[in-house]
């Protein structure tokens, strides 16, 4: 019943259990129902019943069984492939949940930690060998935090969502990315006013630069992108320019594209963000190490 007392509509999603998927994969891997039963530690009759219940739930035949062999149907092959991925994810989940969180996934949208990325990885491995570090690129506003893809996220603009907490670990200069043959490329640095009449390529979801960085009346025209490779390719043509954190210049060097400091633009704060009510045990250690790296210059 719903909150108004009405009968809830029945779900159209089949009720599939992990034991059914394990049974299907075991039959395919072992080659016979008998061997699958031995591998699973159950009776052959239980294997047959479990497979039959899975086929009823899905409404399709998954295996062809003859006196000599058991082979997947075309649909069965696709289901087995998906089942392997699902079971692998579940095994990872159980392993992580029961091992005291020995993995730290750090998400980022475009450029991770720039010139500090490699140093951070190596120092982390040296000082925290018990906690595996993984960098994960997710081009979203929270760099994968809201999506559950990471435990900590490197973000370069404040998160308004109260579900998250963050700490500033460093500052980065703003750089202008332009075609190598752009007249401005001959300069050692540029000003915001030099870019006012240009077309600025921005990523509104994750980027740090908008037209509001310029005073009213001198703002550049903007176009939108959602991918750093697309951003670089467009800039290399000379039709657009970009303004980006210094980390992008270190992590994405591209023939035909040069970076110049924007000397009158405020620096960008680099933050580490995490779930307020579920911080990773290694979060403080990551904050301290990154803060030390950024302070070292």
From TrEMBL:
InterPro entries: LysR_HTH_N, LysR_subst-bd, WH-like_DNA-bd_sf, WH_DNA-bd_sf. Residues 16-73 form the HTH lysR-type domain. It holds the Pfam family HTH_1. Gene3D superfamilies: Periplasmic binding protein-like II, Winged helix-like DNA-binding domain superfamily/Winged helix DNA-binding domain. CDD domains: PBP2_LTTR_aromatics_like. SUPFAM superfamilies: Periplasmic binding protein-like II, Winged helix' DNA-binding domain. Keywords: DNA-binding, Transcription, Transcription regulation. It comes from the Bacteria. Belongs to the LysR transcriptional regulatory family. This is LysR family transcriptional regulator. It comes from Streptomyces ossamyceticus.
